[in-house]
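name: query_chain
kind: protein
chains: 1
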Amino acid sequence: MEDSHSNTAAVQATNDDASASKLSCVKKGYMKDDYIHLFVRRPVRRSPIINRGYFARWAAIRKLLYQFLDVEKKSDEDPPIKKQILSLGAGFDTTYFQLQDEGKAPYLYVEVDFKEVTSKKAALIETCSPLRNKVDETAVISREKGEVFSAHYKLLPADLRDVQQLSAIITHAGLDPSLPTFIIAECVLIYLDPDSTRAIVGWASQTFSTAIFFLYEQIHPDDAFGQQMIRNLENEYISHFHSILGSFIKLELSFPDI
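structure:
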């Protein structure tokens, strides 16, 4: 149980690190994000290799996400295609707010993460007008529950290691398993044990009839980017460092041909 709590805290710590790194990219002009600064309390300047790595991460997911969202109906007689996005371990990601600005937001966007994370995000959405204005006026926001409910955006707490909780979210969020769904697991599964990772992928394949599972994970910690990333984590989150590094090692041992 103690190891589980330690790993949970480690995962939550990396959320802050990712947000700070994304802000560093934005400030250097690698990408545009008008909202990430709202989630960063302590801005930092990352090295060029980290900035380039985070830009590659942003560009990869954005390219595939646009391809999914830009798929049109087959004929003029067909109704518009409703699409969903489910973000697992969303953290302080701002993609929904950016898609709103770009006029590309899907019919339903659902974010899931630990309650400790969703509670903080719900509070920021409630108190920061640039974020609050992107969810409709009738949105129900609960900091205590870590939830945001609006017509087209949902933020919900769950432990991804519990597949039953994920199944409950389908109903709670109003997700339709028959609709085209883009599932995002961006630097998330690496922090879970191999059995939980397999269970999540299996759950997704069994639940959604038409889905894309976008997986982006850290691998090869011995290359230049990996070494710099580990140094950043070690310097900023020393109390959780060994738990984070252990996750990398478990991934490589469990999936050596990744």
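note: The first strand starts at residue 84 and ends at 88.
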